[in-house]
Amino acid sequence: MKRPYVFITRKLPEEIIAPVKEIAEVATWPHDDVPVPRDVLMNEAKKADALLTMVADMVDEAILDAGKQLKVVANMGVGFDNIDVQAATKRGIAVCNTPDVLTDTTADLTFALLLATARRMVEAAQFIKEGKWKSWSPFLLAGVDVHHKTIGIVGMGNIGKAVAKRAIGFDMNVLYHNRSRNIEAEKRLGATYCSFEELLERADFVVCLTPLTNETRHMFNKEAFRKMKRSAIFVNAARGAVVDEQALYEALVSGEIAGAGLDVFEQEPIDASHPLLALPNVIALPHIGSATKETRTKMMELCCRNIIAILTGSQPETLVNKEWSMRS
Ligand SMILES: O=CC(=O)O
């Protein structure tokens, strides 16, 4: 019987993909820092039984249509807004993601970004490197306190809850907004449910951890930033397009909010000329929420296990389209 064909859109460590090679022919885009061009992905999709994709790869209806024998798209990320899941389901293609294994790692980065923005850590590190430190002075690089303040978490999924847990360690008051109430989070973490508007008005730190959907696109718009405290710090570790970046820029420049810590952007990657990078009250990171060696390894391994499961006729561990049923 013909072995299935798997295409992986970035170079991954050989030892991680070895189990896939035991059951399939595997081809890999040979770079780890250059995305696969669309025409290459399209051609590969035509032959592939499985695709292992990155969150930066657009897997739209045209790619799925090309994949006449495609059975699974295993995406290396918890988010899957880069994939047309509905179109995949219609074609009997399973979509898998990598939740759970990255929860604590992403929460660590989110909280680090909050702390770094509040305490001006990047600016301070730059200051010392530039030889500007002349003396201890009373308000030198003074930031704002995090402890005992109010955090407002928008999106109380697993990562939201893990951030709330960290916030409690800093004696913070935890507010959250979510599509539906999370009673477990309220009981276990003492988090208080609020409307989006109330959260914006009350939080000292507004943290965006909601997935990108048609409902959440540009949820943080001009009006939302206007509702925040002038002292508020906004942190986004979810997806850039949940935010209207132009509105964020204007809110930061006009002093409508005090600062922002951003791990994600509307169009990634951004280059050094991006207007937000010119603002002293912004800390920007290149989408590294889950980027630790341990966690990225676990994410790759999970993708491989999901592909093997589908190609050998068993249930994948982390299926996105629960209504999927295997293509005959
Ligand atoms: O952004 C990364 C992810 O969705 O895991």
Describe this structure in words.
One of its GO terms (molecular function) is glyoxylate reductase (NADPH) activity. There is one protein chain. With 328 residues, this protein is of the alpha/beta class. It has 2 domains: 5-100 and 293-312, Rossmann fold (3-Layer(aba) Sandwich), CATH 3.40.50.720; 103-284, NAD(P)-binding Rossmann-like Domain (Rossmann fold), CATH 3.40.50. The chain contains 12 helices and 12 strands. It has a 7-stranded parallel β-sheet, sandwiched between helices. Strands 2-1-3-4-5 form a 5-stranded parallel β-sheet, sandwiched between helices. Helix 7 links the parallel strand 6 (150-154) and strand 7. Glyoxylic acid is lined by residues 55, 77-79, 102, 289-290. Glyoxylic acid binds at residues 55, 77-79, 102, 289-290.
Task: Give a brief description.
Belongs to the D-isomer specific 2-hydroxyacid dehydrogenase family. The protein is an alpha/beta fold. It has helices at 14-23, 38-47, 61-66, 85-90, 103-118, 121-129, 158-169, 183-189, 196-202, 222-227, 245-254, 293-311, and strands at residues 5-8, 25-28, 50-54, 72-76, 94-96, 150-154, 173-177, 192-193, 205-208, 233-236, 259-262, 282-284.
